[in-house]
Amino acid sequence: MNIDPSEIVYFEWEFVRITATLVFTWITMMVLAVGAFFLTRNLRSDTKISRRQNAMEALFTMINDQIREISQDKSGKILPFAGTLFIFILASVLLSLIPGFISPSGSLNTTIALALSVFFAVPAYGISSQGIKGYLKDYLKPTWIMLPFNIISEISRVVSMAIRLYGNVMSSSIIVGILVTIVPLLFPVALQLLGLLTGVIQAYIFAVLSVVYISAAIRNKDNNLSESNELKEE
Amino acid sequence: MDSMTIIGMTSIIVAGFTISIGSIAPALGEGKAVSQALASMAQQPDESSTISRTLFVGLAMIESTAIYCFVVTMILLFANPFWNLVAG
Question: How many structural domains are present in chain B?
Answer without folding.
Answer: 1
